[in-house]
């Protein structure tokens, strides 16, 4: 019997378009002799589109409006063997949709409520990983209300870290709302921007030198495996939105040109983080490697990484001998596996 799969794409976050691109790749790659796949696109307003709207959105690459309230449509997910929530960022990768699917009793690809929610929030991730002994840069949390009522206290926290530092909304991705602050006078606009996007903001010390950015893929549930390590190189102050999504701005190197023991440390640390955060199915774990000093810091864990055929995560597993189509098949199988 073919497995019936519901593929969710689009969604409300700034990564709506990225998700639709990934969905086209996954749709084309899930073997039709094993799977019967139905896509449903979620509009930017968070509503589920009917088949015609979904088809149109997949072709045009975006769905700004339209669709039905999720709560009216989620019952239609009944009868599917598994859901592939190919959604990035808030309301997709953060445990919300995972909670809905858990309540509905439908297995799904990727991490559950806990792993998704904790990994999405950069502060919670840091706290959990600190207790697992994972090396990370120094950081401080600030709340919107504190910035409004006691700005001096927030500024003092930033001063403890020194400049340059990074200011980031705690629950976003794709570098949206992130600033590199080189001097105290640029701190306030960076905080205003980050707080316009999130109640929780993380201040992070910058690595001692511009870091090399290395990434590793994890695949599995309770017995996860790590891919080879990859590296992204680019010519910009940091890996900002424009550099991420402008064709030709960043270059992928697989395997990363790293000393063997550093690559091993990356893989081992990523597996430790995956377990500590209670992730499942897949994750791309991103690190900073400071070549000058040999320091290695875990930066973040992405529980639903970019998934086009040219994205880092599938490329990392391709380098390990697992084709794109084998990879998506394996992910659905992992979703159906008893845990
Ligand atoms: P996102 O989840 O939006 O990808 P990241 O935390 O990965 O956010 O930050 C985006 C980019 O900003 C990183 O890829 C890196 O280029 C730069 N960056 C972020 N934090 C630091 C830091 N502490 N030190 C140096 N560079 C950083
Ligand atoms: Mg991220
Ligand atoms: Mg990142």
UniProtKB/TrEMBL annotation:
<keyword id="KW-0963">Cytoplasm</keyword>
<keyword id="KW-0067">ATP-binding</keyword>
<keyword id="KW-0436">Ligase</keyword>
<dbReference type="InterPro" id="IPR011095">
    <property type="entry name" value="Dala_Dala_lig_C"/>
</dbReference>
<dbReference type="GO" id="GO:0016874">
    <property type="term" value="F:ligase activity"/>
</dbReference>
<keyword id="KW-0464">Manganese</keyword>
<dbReference type="InterPro" id="IPR013815">
    <property type="entry name" value="ATP_grasp_subdomain_1"/>
</dbReference>
<comment type="similarity">
    <text>Belongs to the D-alanine--D-alanine ligase family.</text>
</comment>
<dbReference type="InterPro" id="IPR011127">
    <property type="entry name" value="Dala_Dala_lig_N"/>
</dbReference>
<keyword id="KW-0133">Cell shape</keyword>
<protein>
    <recommendedName>
        <fullName>D-alanine--D-alanine ligase</fullName>
        <ecNumber>6.3.2.4</ecNumber>
    </recommendedName>
</protein>
<feature type="domain" description="ATP-grasp">
    <location>
        <begin position="126"/>
        <end position="333"/>
    </location>
</feature>
<keyword id="KW-0460">Magnesium</keyword>
<comment type="pathway">
    <text>Cell wall biogenesis; peptidoglycan biosynthesis.</text>
</comment>
<dbReference type="Pfam" id="PF01820">
    <property type="entry name" value="Dala_Dala_lig_N"/>
</dbReference>
<dbReference type="InterPro" id="IPR016185">
    <property type="entry name" value="PreATP-grasp_dom_sf"/>
</dbReference>
<comment type="function">
    <text>Cell wall formation.</text>
</comment>
<dbReference type="InterPro" id="IPR000291">
    <property type="entry name" value="D-Ala_lig_Van_CS"/>
</dbReference>
<keyword id="KW-0547">Nucleotide-binding</keyword>
<dbReference type="InterPro" id="IPR005905">
    <property type="entry name" value="D_ala_D_ala"/>
</dbReference>
<dbReference type="InterPro" id="IPR011761">
    <property type="entry name" value="ATP-grasp"/>
</dbReference>
<keyword id="KW-0961">Cell wall biogenesis/degradation</keyword>
<dbReference type="Pfam" id="PF07478">
    <property type="entry name" value="Dala_Dala_lig_C"/>
</dbReference>
<keyword id="KW-0573">Peptidoglycan synthesis</keyword>
<keyword id="KW-0479">Metal-binding</keyword>
């Amino acid at each position: 019997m073919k497995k019936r799969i519901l593929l969710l794409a689009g969604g409300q976050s700034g990564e709506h378009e990225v998700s639709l691109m990934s969905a086209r790749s996954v749709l084309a790659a899930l073997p039709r002799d094993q799977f019967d796949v139905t896509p449903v696109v979620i509009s930017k307003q968070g509503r589920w589109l009917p088949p015609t709207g979904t088809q149109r959105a997949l072709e045009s690459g975006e769905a700004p409006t339209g669709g039905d309230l999720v709560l009216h449509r989620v019952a239609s997910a009944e009868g599917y063997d598994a859901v592939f929530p190919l959604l990035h960022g808030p309301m997709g990768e953060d445990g919300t949709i995972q909670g809905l699917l858990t309540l509905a009793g439908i297995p799904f690809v990727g991490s559950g409520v806990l792993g998704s929610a904790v990994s999405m929030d950069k502060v919670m991730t840091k706290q959990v990983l600190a207790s697992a002994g994972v090396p990370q840069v120094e950081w401080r949390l600030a709340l919107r209300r504190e910035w409004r009522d006691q700005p001096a206290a927030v500024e003092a926290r930033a001063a403890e870290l020194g400049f340059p530092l990074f200011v980031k909304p705690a629950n976003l991705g794709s570098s949206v709302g992130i600033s590199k602050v080189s001097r105290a006078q640029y701190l306030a606009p960076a905080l205003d921007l980050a707080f316009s996007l999130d109640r929780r903001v993380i201040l992070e010390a910058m690595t001692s030198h511009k870091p090399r950015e290395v990434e590793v893929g994890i695949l599995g549930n309770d017995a996860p495996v790590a891919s080879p390590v990859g590296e992204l190189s680019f010519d910009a102050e940091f890996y900002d939105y424009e550099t991420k999504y402008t064709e030709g701005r960043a270059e992928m190197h697989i395997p990363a040109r790293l000393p063997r023991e550093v690559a091993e440390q990356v893989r081992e640390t990523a597996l430790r983080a995956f377990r500590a955060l209670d992730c499942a199915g897949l994750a791309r774990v991103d690190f900073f490697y400071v070549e000058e000093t040999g320091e290695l810091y875990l930066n973040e864990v992405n529980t639903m990484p970019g998934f086009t055929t040219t994205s880092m995560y599938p490329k990392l597993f391709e380098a390990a001998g697992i084709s794109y189509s084998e990879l998506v098949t394996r992910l659905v199988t992992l979703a159906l596996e008893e845990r």
